[in-house]
Structures are given as structure tokens and as C-alpha cells.
Specification:
The chain folds into two domains: 30 residues; 86 residues, 3-Layer(aba) Sandwich (Glutaredoxin). 43% of the residues lie in helices and 17% in strands. The protein has four helices and four strands. Strands 2-1-3-4 form a four-stranded mixed beta sheet. It is elongated, with a radius of gyration of 22 Å. 28% of the residues are buried.
């Protein structure tokens, strides 16, 4: 019976150890998710959200993350806008679940991700949308400021 008790005690230590590691992992990804989940190369780069009045009619800012489903869907929309209107629209992406993205996004007040913010040539916000924004609807917002 002593041998069975010893095996049971070893088994409990192993279970406690595994549980501890799982809880530690959860804690780490909650506090610093970028340590575990690095941004992929296929993501629109994060840049400062400052309008460039000399070149762009609109600055399109996306506040989101590479890990939320509607945000992932917006990646394709952002790439398409950049490809079609890159000489008229500056596309800016901030992953708000990373340290750098959180810092950059502090200048905006928002309740949900993804959030799209549109600035005119002078840097004044003229439109805002929360959630997935279909490209055909987004283009209508761009055209309000003369994007062709």
C-alpha cells in the first residue's frame, strides 16, 4: 500500500506542476501577449498616426489586433485600399494588444476593435466606424474627401 501511496503523491506533483505552468502561460499571454504571438509579415505595418498633408487626402487608421477575427478580416481590406489608393490614402494599423500599439492608440478614445478612424488632409477626424467595415462601404467614406 505504501508504494501505491508514493505513486499517487508523485502523480499529484506532476498534475500540480502542469497546472502551474498552464496558469503561468495564461498569465503571460494576458499581460504581455506579444511575447507569445509575434506579428506576421502579412500584416500592414504599424506607423505613427500622423496625417501627411502634402501627399494624402485621407489618413485611414485601423485600431485592431492580428488576433481578433474581424480585425484579421480588415487586414485584406487595408491591403486592398493601400494597393488601389496608396497615392491618396495613408493606411495606418495599430495592434492595440501589443505594447507599441497600445502606446500609439492612446491618442484615440475607442470602445471596441476593430475601429476605423478617418482623418482629412489637415488631420481632423471626419468619420469613425466600429467593427468590420466592408471595402465598398469604406470607399464611400474615402470619396467624401475626394479620393478617386
Amino acid at each position: 500500500m505504501k508504494n501505491g501511496h508514493k505513486n499517487n503523491s508523485s502523480f499529484k506533483r506532476i498534475i500540480y506542476s502542469i497546472t502551474g505552468f498552464v496558469l503561468l502561460f495564461i498569465l503571460i499571454i494576458t499581460i504581455e501577449p506579444e511575447l507569445i504571438f509575434a506579428q506576421k509579415d502579412n500584416v500592414v505595418n504599424t506607423t505613427l498616426a500622423t496625417p501627411d498633408s502634402t501627399n494624402y487626402k485621407v489618413t485611414f487608421i485601423e485600431l485592431g489586433s492580428v488576433r481578433c477575427i474581424p480585425c484579421k478580416q480588415m487586414q485584406a481590406v487595408m491591403k486592398s485600399i493601400e494597393k488601389k489608393y496608396g497615392n491618396q490614402v495613408k493606411v495606418v494599423f495599430h495592434d492595440v494588444w501589443t505594447t507599441a500599439g497600445k502606446e500609439a492608440a492612446k491618442q484615440f478614445v475607442f470602445d471596441a476593435i476593430p475601429t476605423q478612424i478617418f482623418l482629412d488632409q489637415s488631420g481632423k477626424e471626419y468619420f469613425r466606424h466600429e467593427g468590420f467595415f466592408p471595402e465598398n462601404e469604406l470607399v464611400k467614406v474615402l470619396k467624401q474627401k475626394g479620393v478617386k
